[in-house]
Each structure stands twice: as C-alpha cells, then as structure tokens.
C-alpha cells in the first residue's frame, strides 16, 4: 500500500514534490534543470557527473529494498523472516529496468514470458522518461545540487566510433581483451545486476545496401504509436527507414545498444552500463522535440496496447504507482529541458544514426538467440557475470559479430 498524495506532493510518504514542482507546499514551479551534451560539460560538471555515478553505485538506497522471493514466500519459511536485500541507488535503477522485462511470475514455477512493460509499445517512451527522472532526482540528492542534470550523448552524428567510450568518459576498451572495459576506467570496477540467464547472441547481416533512418524523417511522423508508421517504431528502433514497423530491423535506439554490444546488447542487462543514461537522455530529447512539434496527444492509446502500455496503466514496477499519462507531458512541466537544437542542425538532423555508416552494405539484420549451458560458460569465464563489457567489432564490413553475455 502507499499514500495517495494531494496537490503536487509525491512519494511513498508524500514527502516530496511531483517532478516540476518545489517549495514547502509544492506550489512553486521548479526552474527546469538543463540536460547538456556530455561533450559540452565543463571539467567540473563532468567530474561531478562521473563522481556521483560512482557514489550511486556504492551508496545503499535509504528507501527501497529488493524482494528475493515471490510474494507468497516473502515472509520466509516460518513467516517471520522477510526476504529482502539492500541495494545501491544505481543498482536499484538497474533492477527496475531488469524487472520490467523479466518473466512475470504468476506463482511458483509459473513464469509468463509474453509481457514487456517497458519496450515494444507506447510506454517505451514514458517508462524510460520516468526511469531516468527518478535516478536524476536521486543523483541531485547525492550531490546536494538541485540543478544537477544527467547529460545526453548525441549518437546521431555519423561518427565511425563510440566517442563516449573513453577512459576519461564512460570507459574505453581493454587493449588486452576488447570485450571488456579498460581497467583504467573507474567503471571497470562495477559489477552488474543480472540473473544467471545466458544467451549466445549472433547478429547476422546480409550483403545488400542498408537504408538509413534520419532524425528529421522521424520527427515528421504525426502519430506516436498504434499505427504501421509511427514515432514509436522509429524511435525505439523496430522500423524500416520510413518508419514502417518491421520487427526484424533495428535502428536508432536499438541499433546503438547493439553497436555497444556486450552488457548493453540485451534488455535485461543494458542499464548496468552507464552509457544507458546518456543514450536514453538523447532518445528522450528526440521524443521531446517531436512532442514540441506535434499536438497529437490523443495518439497515446487508451486501450489495445500491450499490457502496461495503455494511457491509464501504471508503469511497472515503479512505486508509488504512476501512469503513462502522468508522464506524457512536456519535459519543462516535469522540471527539465535540453540544451539541444535538432531542427536546422545539419549534424543532428541529417546525419546517419551511429553505427549505420559501418553497415552500409547490409540491408537487414536479425538476432539468433540460442540457449547454451550456463554452467559451462560461467565455469570457463568466471568474471563474465560480474563485470561490464562491450565488444565493438573490429570489422563491421564483415557484417558478423558475436558475444556471450550473462
């Protein structure tokens, strides 16, 4: 159970203000914090961002713990031992994303695999917006700086490499083992929140010419979702370049996750990588630009969307409950804005999405997901399940790369 807050109060105990509000009675509009390009941060701002991520990774969350058993067994075998674990602030953020995509447990031994609360539907946008907002607020508390804002990474510049994958930013590659984060990066020490679910991911490409999606094309779509051509298909990345739904295709947001590979390549583990924050901040910036240009609020569906994705549905697993509709408003109403100009910016609007340039000769690509023996993988690669890793292929023109992840 939770409190039902009046006015602009929020939180499980109504002790905070709703996003976008401030003051003792939560009646004052909060001046929006400004999310900047990570490459435009001052040295002090960048240091603050990297330091607070490290602190969030090691600071135990003061308000939330994680249940380790199904609710039927939550009090333990004798009914007096609650089955909970403490969790750090950043790992709680990771766990929320993991929980939203994991199998839904209907009861002991009864997993339901057909639900994804945060992807492949209109709530992809609202869910990730709220997810990032929640962590941003926690980071503001840690820094003691209410103007702190998560930066974004403009991955739509057409560059031929990951320009945030450096040791001075979010971690370069290990020269001795390209599948791992450089030991010189502070993030090499980070463990991951992950179930012991092991997949062999092979991303196979054909030899025909890749069509490319441009951000300016995406911003012309006049519906969010529930249509064969929509912003949702284009922004999440299940589309062809003209926005038409094609689940065999990965573009924009999805393509960047695949480009980073490793921990970032699978939904259940992606949030472990700190690049997840800056990637989704830019994805949200594109949505914000679309919302600014479009007045079609009715495109958020009232019904017939996947479970958890309709307008009035609560977003799982956020607590206290919050609906998609509450977050389907402009960023300034939620207390933040972007220092980015997509319209008229040649590089941001017209450039190809990061990674596409590598894939010029490949038209369509798809996953082949194969279960393999978890014991064999973990036995032979004991560090695999406890470290962040990325694996950018050395030769994208070969149109084939492979990585084992846990």
UniProtKB/TrEMBL annotation:
- GO cellular component terms attached to this protein's record: melanosome membrane
Q: What subcellular locations does the record give?
A: Melanosome membrane
Which pathway is this protein engaged in? Pigment biosynthesis; melanin biosynthesis
Q: How does it sit in the membrane?
A: Single-pass type I membrane protein
Enumerate the UniProt keywords alphabetically: Glycoprotein, Isomerase, Melanin biosynthesis, Membrane, Metal-binding, Signal, Transmembrane, Transmembrane helix, Zinc
Predominant location category:
membrane
- In short, the EC number is 5.3.3.12
Q: Report TM segments.
A: none
Q: Give GO terms: molecular function aspect only.
A: dopachrome isomerase activity; metal ion binding; oxidoreductase activity
Q: Which family does it belong to?
A: Belongs to the tyrosinase family.
Q: Which PANTHER family match?
A: L-DOPACHROME TAUTOMERASE, TYROSINASE FAMILY MEMBER
The protein here is known as: L-dopachrome tautomerase
Please name the source species: Sinocyclocheilus rhinocerous
């Amino acid at each position: 159970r939770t409190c039902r807050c009046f006015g602009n109060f929020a939180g499980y105990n109504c002790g905070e203000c709703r996003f976008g509000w401030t003051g003792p009675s939560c009646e004052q509009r909060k001046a929006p914090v400004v999310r900047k390009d990570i490459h435009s941060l001052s040295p002090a701002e960048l240091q603050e961002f990297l330091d607070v991520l490290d602190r969030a990774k090691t600071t135990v969350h003061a308000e939330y713990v994680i249940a380790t058993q199904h609710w039927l067994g939550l009090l333990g075998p004798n009914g007096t031992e609650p089955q909970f674990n403490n969790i750090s602030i950043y790992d709680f953020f990771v766990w929320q994303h993991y929980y939203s995509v994991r199998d839904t447990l209907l009861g002991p031994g009864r997993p339901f695999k057909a639900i994804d609360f945060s992807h492949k539907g209109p709530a992809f946008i609202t869910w990730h917006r709220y997810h990032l907002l929640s962590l941003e607020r926690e980071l503001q508390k840690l820094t003691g700086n209410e103007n702190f804002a998560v930066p974004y990474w403009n991955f739509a510049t057409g560059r031929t490499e990951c320009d945030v994958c450096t040791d001075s930013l979010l971690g370069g590659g290990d020269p001795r083992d390209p599948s791992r984060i450089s030991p010189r990066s502070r993030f090499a020490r980070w463990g991951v929140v992950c179930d012991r679910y092991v997949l062999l991911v092979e991303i196979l490409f054909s030899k025909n010419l890749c069509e490319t999606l441009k951000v300016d094309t995406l911003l012309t779509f006049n519906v969010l979702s529930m249509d064969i051509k929509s912003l949702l298909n284009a922004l999440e990345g299940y589309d062809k370049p003209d926005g038409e739904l094609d689940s065999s295709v990965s573009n924009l947001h999805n393509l960047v996750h695949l480009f980073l590979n490793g921990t970032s390549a699978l939904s259940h583990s992606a949030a472990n990588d700190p690049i997840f924050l800056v990637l989704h901040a830019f994805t949200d910036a594109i949505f914000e630009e679309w919302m600014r240009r479009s007045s079609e609020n009715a495109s958020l569906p009232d019904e017939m969307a996947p479970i958890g994705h309709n307008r009035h549905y609560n977003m799982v697993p956020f607590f206290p409950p919050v609906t998609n509709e509450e977050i389907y408003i402009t960023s300034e109403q939620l207390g933040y804005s972007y220092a980015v100009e997509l319209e008229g910016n040649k590089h941001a609007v017209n450039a190809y999405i990061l990674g596409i340039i590598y894939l010029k000769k490949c038209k369509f690509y798809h996953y082949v997901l194969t279960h393999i023996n978890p014991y064999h993988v973990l036995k032979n690669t004991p560090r695999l399940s406890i470290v962040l890793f990325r694996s950018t292929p050395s030769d994208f023109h070969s149109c084939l790369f492979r990585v084992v992840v846990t």
